[in-house]
TrEMBL record:
Gene: hisH
Domain Glutamine amidotransferase, chain residue ranges per copy: 5-209
NCBIfam families: IMP_synth_hisH
Pathway the protein takes part in: Amino-acid biosynthesis; L-histidine biosynthesis; L-histidine from 5-phospho-alpha-D-ribose 1-diphosphate: step 5/9
Location relative to the cell: Cytoplasm
Location, primary (coarse class): cytoplasm
PANTHER family recorded: IMIDAZOLE GLYCEROL PHOSPHATE SYNTHASE SUBUNIT HISH, IMIDAZOLE GLYCEROL PHOSPHATE SYNTHASE SUBUNIT HISH 1
Catalytic function, reaction form: L-glutamine + H2O = L-glutamate + NH4(+); 5-[(5-phospho-1-deoxy-D-ribulos-1-ylimino)methylamino]-1-(5-phospho-beta-D-ribosyl)imidazole-4-carboxamide + L-glutamine = D-erythro-1-(imidazol-4-yl)glycerol 3-phosphate + 5-amino-1-(5-phospho-beta-D-ribosyl)imidazole-4-carboxamide + L-glutamate + H(+)
Name of the featured protein: Imidazole glycerol phosphate synthase subunit HisH
Protein's organism: Halomonas rhizosphaerae
Length: 213
């Protein structure tokens, strides 16, 4: 049993791998080897930085076709993290507009720069720090995690999914209701960083390694 963290040159790879090792006795590897990725029992698609760079590196490492194939087949569980969530959508507004993988319908949008909280204090972009996540639909990855639990975020862009059935968690930041947990079939993806989210984040990773879609 092997969990493969897909290494296409972007993302918080090793901290994700260390967090997974903390919650499972399964073998955890960080790899860009197509054979090892195909042979893994579970997959993690991380991402960090600009979407243009992430999509570009996925092309450069010749892993885009493999990731698209694995998403289409849905033969094994896959967890997307941060920009790894955003990449699953149709399109992102970042970098002047970037086409993404199109696995899930929707758009990645930029937070408005003039957002304010209920006391009229200006909210910072990027959205950075702890924020609660409201579970929008039941899912096995929410098992043992309280409703409105806090997770750790760092992002300037957010997912706006088209199909409500694919939205499993939301976060309110200013007037924006961001879709921070999305999924379909054997794929689940989150905008927050479970590897940096203390007990709740580790519980979500533990649920992922036990998930049988």
């Amino acid at each position: 049993m092997t969990i493969a963290v897909i290494d296409y040159g972007m993302g918080n790879l090793h901290s994700v791998a260390k967090a997974l090792e903390h919650v499972t006795h399964e073998n955890v590897i960080v790899t860009r080897d197509a054979r090892r990725i195909r042979g893994a029992t579970r997959l993690v698609l991380p991402g960090q930085g600009a979407i243009r760079d992430c999509m570009g590196e996925l092309e450069k490492t010749e892993l885009r076709g493999l990731v698209e194939e694995l998403l289409a087949r849905q033969a094994k569980p896959l967890l997307g993290i941060c920009v790894g969530q955003q990449m699953l959508l149709d399109h992102s507004e970042e970098n002047g507009g970037i086409g993404c993988l199109g696995f899930l319908r929707g758009e990645v949008r930029k937070f408005p720069t003039d957002m304010r909280d209920d006391r009229n204090n200006r909210l910072k972009v990027p959205h950075m720090g702890w924020n609660l996540v409201h579970q929008h639909h039941d899912h096995p990855l929410w098992a043992g995690i309280d409703q409105d639990e806090h997770f750790y975020f760092v992002h300037s862009y957010y997912v706006d999914a088209t199909d409500d059935a694919t939205v499993f968690g939301t976060t309110e930041y200013g007037r924006v209701n961001a879709h921070v947990a999305i999924g379909r079939d054997a794929t689940f993806a989150v905008q927050f960083h479970p590897e940096k989210s203390s007990r709740a984040g580790l519980k979500l990773l533990e649920n992922f390694v036990q998930w049988t879609p």
